[in-house]
Design brief:
421 residues; alpha/beta; Rossmann fold; six-stranded mixed β-sheet; four-stranded parallel β-sheet
Length: 421
């Protein structure tokens, strides 16, 4: 059975809370809420538009300790927290004083999203996508993925009692393959890179009318989940916006939605509309957005990824141009770092703050260091770093770089000698 991309067999009117319509990013064409991701009018991505009504701090604070405390700001039904889901969010924001000292700056905050159910920020976006997909009548949760999304989709589908279909590049880290396969969904490894996998997903989304590809046909709803990172940071800072924030770039959606979240909080009067700067971080082996920023371009030229930071290895990032818009508007910058710098970023965060991040977090830390050294990040203003995934997912990136200080015989003297005591 075939169907037009984004259609389903349901005639139910979706309950998506404050969401009222979809709007094209380029020319502002409006259309009803539907499982569609590209405007038929101007062929640009679609974004959710809202009628929020009144939203108060005390209502948010009285909500559950997960992303559903912000349900009045998301495209989800009013009873979303009552439906089985992985309940992501409410991850810690830590004041990273030892990291700040190592970087030579006044204050650093680390938003540690490794504490989510499958240990990455993707649990946030998938939870929102699943809630929307249910309203549209889908019954299969699917995705193309560089790893973290695969974990999150498989887990969320299992929790909801849905079938999952996950497409991954066959070269994905072994840990991410295992931590997806364990949920017993349909995991398909593809002989190609992420852009090949994404192309296949788009084709299948047009054919399988009951499949919700979270980052394809329900992408406008899915991407809104990243706003909750911004909401939590602002709330955890005492209901204020940070001065500077560094965000890793894969497709670019997360960075644009963090900005959107800050702006919505300001527009609703939940925080003062103080200025902030958004900075982007990429690995040099897949840095099309960084290259465009450096060249002063407003378009992004696709590249073939070649980096250990596979979760960021999207050579043709869908939201690249919109990342450039946000960074330029806020006065930020975009930088990229080598794989060697990525590993050192992982180790720096681990030894200073006891947080073991995956390669994407290594990119964020290393890029922040580079931005500080080049004077683009202000050392006298606070800096928030988004750490979006757990290091246990990418052990292969560091396994040949670290290990025991020494291997000794089973005697106290041998241990003392190795330790120099």
């Amino acid at each position: 059975m075939t169907a037009t991309l984004g259609t389903t067999s349901t005639t139910k009117t979706p309950d998506l809370g404050p969401a009222v319509e979809l709007v094209s990013k380029e020319e502002g064409h409006r259309q009803p809420l539907a499982p569609e991701f590209v405007s038929a009018e101007d062929f640009s991505p679609l974004e959710v538009a809202y009628d929020f009504g009144r939203v108060r701090r005390e209502d948010i604070e009285a909500g559950p300790k997960n992303i559903w405390r912000y349900k009045k700001l998301l495209p989800v039904p009013s009873n979303v927290e009552e439906i089985p889901n992985t309940e992501p969010g409410a991850t810690r924001l830590i004041q990273a004083d030892r990291l700040a000292k190592a970087l030579g700056v006044k204050k650093v905050w680390v938003k540690d999203d490794t504490g989510n159910p499958t240990h990455s920020f993707k649990d946030r976006v998938v939870a929102v996508a699943l809630a929307a997909a249910r309203e549209f009548g889908f019954d299969v949760l699917a995705c193309p993925s560089t790893g973290n999304l695969a974990n999150a989709v498989a887990a969320a589908a299992a929790r909801a009692g849905w079938r999952s279909v996950v497409l991954i590049p066959k070269t994905l880290e072994r840990a991410k393959i295992l931590t997806t396969a364990v949920y017993d969904g349909d995991l398909i490894a593809v002989d190609g890179n992420y852009d090949d996998v994404n192309r296949l997903a788009t084709q299948l989304a047009a054919e399988q009318e009951s499949w919700a590809f979270v980052n394809v046909n329900v992408r406008p709803y899915y991407s809104e989940g990243s706003k909750t990172l911004a909401f939590e940071v602002a709330e955890q800072l005492g209901w204020r916006l940070p001065s500077q924030i560094v965000v890793p770039i894969a497709s670019g959606s997360q960075l644009t939605k963090v900005d959107k979240g800050f702006r919505e909080f300001g527009q609703l009067g939940l925080v003062d509309e103080t200025p902030y700067k958004v900075f982007g971080a990429q690995a040099t082996g897949c840095s099309p957005v960084s290259a465009a920023f450096r060249a002063g371009h407003d378009v992004v030229q696709p590249v073939k990824p070649d980096t250990i930071a596979r979760s960021l290895a999207i050579g043709n990032p869908a939201d690249g141009p919109y990342v450039l818009d946000v960074v330029n508007r806020t006065g930020g910058a975009i930088e990229d770092v080598t794989d060697e710098e990525v590993v050192e970023g992982i180790r720096l965060l681990a030894r200073t703050e006891g947080i073991f991040t995956e390669t994407a977090g290594g990119v964020t830390v290393a890029t922040a260091k580079k931005l500080i050294e080049t004077g683009k990040l202000n050392p006298d203003e606070e800096i928030v770093l988004l750490i979006t995934g757990d290091g246990l997912k990418t052990l292969d990136a560091v396994e040949d770089k670290i290990g025991p200080k020494a291997t000794v015989s089973a005697s106290a003297d041998a241990v003392r000698e190795a330790l120099g005591i």
